[in-house]
Amino acid sequence: QVQLVESGGGLVQPGGSLRLSCAASRNILSFYNVGWYRQGPGNVRELVAVFTESGGTTYGDSVKGRFTISRDNAKNMVYLQMNSLKPEDTAVYYCRADLLRAYWGQGTQVTVSS
């Protein structure tokens, strides 16, 4: 069983920054892929940024150059630094980890609004 707990969401003005954190209940190096997805109002859940099995990173086209995924293996933490936030970044952000199946956190709300 894997537990993922997100934190760091909130309300931020356009152009601002937020840092999301995901705490995993086991060694994140054991996951095939681990990272962030989001679901905005009326939208399907989409990839934001993930660490892949090969050790690389993949970013969604809409966040490239603005968001950065990082991790602390010793703490079993995955982070998402979000800069230059736009209203269209408003969504619930989920941490996901793939093992024998996909595990999801409960999500954290990010609202970008003036």
Q: Mean pLDDT, rounded to whole units?
A: 96
- Which class of secondary structure composition applies to the elements? mainly beta
Shape: globular
Strand segment count: 11
What is the helix tally?
0
Q: What percent of residues are in strands?
A: over 45%
The low-confidence parts are none
Major β-sheet annotation: 7 strands, mixed
Give the CA-CA distance, first to last residue.
40 Å
Radius of gyration of CA atoms, rounded to a whole number: 13 Å
Order of helices and strands: EEEEEEEEEEE
Q: How helix-rich are the residues, as a percent range?
A: under 10%
Topology (elements, then pairings):
Elements: E1 4-7, E2 10-12, E3 18-24, E4 33-39, E5 46-51, E6 57-59, E7 67-72, E8 77-82, E9 91-98, E10 102-104, E11 108-112
Parallel strand pairs: 2-11
Antiparallel strand pairs: 1-3, 3-8, 4-5, 4-9, 5-6, 7-8, 9-10, 9-11
Detailed description of the structure:
The protein has 114 residues and is an all-beta fold. 0% of the residues lie in helices and 51% in strands. It has no helices and eleven strands. Strand 5 and strand 6 (57-59) form a beta hairpin. It is globular. The model has no long low-confidence stretch (mean pLDDT 96).
